[in-house]
Amino acid sequence: MPEYRPAFEEYCEAIFELQEDAVDVIQARIADRLNVSRPAVSEMIHRLAEEGLVTLDGAIRLTDTGRALAERVVRRHRLAERFLTDILGLSWAEAHREAGRWEHVLSDPVEAAMNRLLGEPTTCPHGNPIPGSAYEDPEAVRLNDVAVGGEFVVTRITEELEFADGVLDFLEESAMLPGKRGRLTAVSPDGAVTVEIDGHHVGIGEFAGSRILVLPETAAPASA
What angle, 0 to 180 degrees and rounded to 10, lies between the N-to-C axes of helices 6-20 and 38-50? Predict the structure, then answer.
């Protein structure tokens, strides 16, 4: 694949991740994700179309070339996050920020070496799949779809939460980590939930609860 400008990579990555999270890919969403103005998005989207990276037939869609570029960037970002957390001991939030730089400069040999060193991981630290890995999609549900009393295993913190200020730090500090077991103990009228995890009770707002994916286990009987 030819090399593209980092800006082109950023936009293709954003479109890919919005599609991955089942978010409508419209210019306003891209502007929010990349923290740029809507006129700037409009101009760049048309440039991407001229480069053959997206189509604009009523919706913004990646072409085969655009998807391949996005997958390369996302793969490098998520491998970098895994390296930065597992090997260097950075926090989730620190790793996410730093990986945003690494994704544009990793060469193929360094990417391959990093993948070998890490044991060919299938997900980033937050549980999001690494493109090109042996990832198998579990039958996960949203945290706020779990019944009160239901037990679960955290599987994935979707990309949308990685861009919400302070959320990654909060979830990491609260032990809402992939592989952790918990129990949903209460639901508020506004859609927020309370979970018990690692012996602590943690409140999760509706926005985050609808973007944390879990595998339900057993459902405890409701109290009389």
Answer: 100
Domain membership of residue 44 as a residue range = 1-135
The domain boundary, picked from 105, 135, 165, lies at: 135
Q: Is the pLDDT reported for residue 120 higher than 90?
A: yes
Prediction pTM value: 0.89
Question: d(Cα 43, Cα 179) in Å, to the nearest integer?
Answer: 42
The 10 Å Cβ neighbour count of residue 120 is: 12
Cα(11)–Cα(16) distance, rounded to whole angstroms? 9
What per-residue confidence (pLDDT) applies to 58?
A: 78
Residue 165, pLDDT score: 84
Predicted local distance difference test score (pLDDT) of residue 220: 40
Looking up residue 95, the CATH number of its domain turns out to be 1.10.10.10
- What is the mean predicted confidence (pLDDT) over 134-146? 92
Contacts (Cβ under 8 Å, ≥6 apart) of 30: 11, 14, 15, 18, 41, 45, 60
Name the one residue in this structure whose structure tokens are 């999609």. 137
Q: Which is nearest to 205 in space by CA: 159, 167, 151?
A: 167
Residue 3 has a pLDDT of 76
CB under 8 Å to 83, separation ≥6 — which residues?
114, 117, 118
